Amino acid sequence: MNKKILSTCIIILIIILTIFIRFTRINGFILKKIYPIKFSEYVYKYSKENDVDPLLVFAIIKTESNFKKDATSKSGAIGLMQLMPETAKEKAGKLNINYTENTLYNPEDNIKIGISYYKTLLDYYNQNYILAFVAYNAGIGNVDKWIKEEKISELGTDIENIPFKETNMYVRKIINNYERYKELYNY
Fold first, then answer.
1. Per-position DSSP letters for 4-53, written without gaps between them
2. Per-residue exposure over 160-187, b if at least 16 CB sit within 10 Å of its own CB, e if not
């Protein structure tokens, strides 16, 4: 009788483990559909050129446009990385990109300009990717002002104190997306 119970328990355990493994694979498959790595050839190329973690870039694109290359915001930001035309035009000039009104709808140009801009923010904030995210959304002027007024620290560890609600939520979302990308793509 004990052997029969033990044998049944082992079979049930094997079935549970099989279901768990399949569910984990299905869950990973589904999550990779929700958190894709689209336009990866450009993301990896320009991330490497700028020494930026490509998963940070995927998190930015996911947060900004959800990988919609023709996205345009209410504030006028355009494309995958939701770049403001004036900022992008200035950055495109430095990158020798012939800037037209359609440049930001081109995935390669948008990603190249966006990563270069984000790298500028990273360098400005001493490689603090959280402060760079805050500045990507709210602008360097606002971030510098908030640091000077001690609303946020130079470490970026107190994102709950970001004065703009939209930026506060943006930073939380982008950090969450970045963590998810690191989990899914084992980086």
1. HHHHHHHHHHHHHHHHHHHHHHHHHHHHHHHS--TTHHHHHHHHHHHT--
2. eebeeeebbebbeebbebbebbeebeee
Q: How far apart are CA 154 and CA 144, in angstroms?
A: 9
User: Domain residues of the chain, as ranges?
Assistant: 1-34, 37-184
Is position 108 annotated as part of the catalytic site? no
64, 86, 160, 183: the active-site residue: 64
Task: Give the model confidence (pLDDT) of 147-180 as tens digits.
Answer: 998 888 877 778 888 889 999 999 999 999 999 9
Q: Which two tokens stand for residue 94?
A: 């430095």
13-47 confidence digits (pLDDT tens): 666 755 555 555 566 788 899 999 999 999 999 99
Query: What are the CA-CA distances from residue 7 to residues 3, 4, 10, 13, 177 (Å)?
Result: 6, 5, 5, 10, 44
| Overall fold of domain 37-184 | Lysozyme (1.10.530)
The model carries a pTM of: 0.84
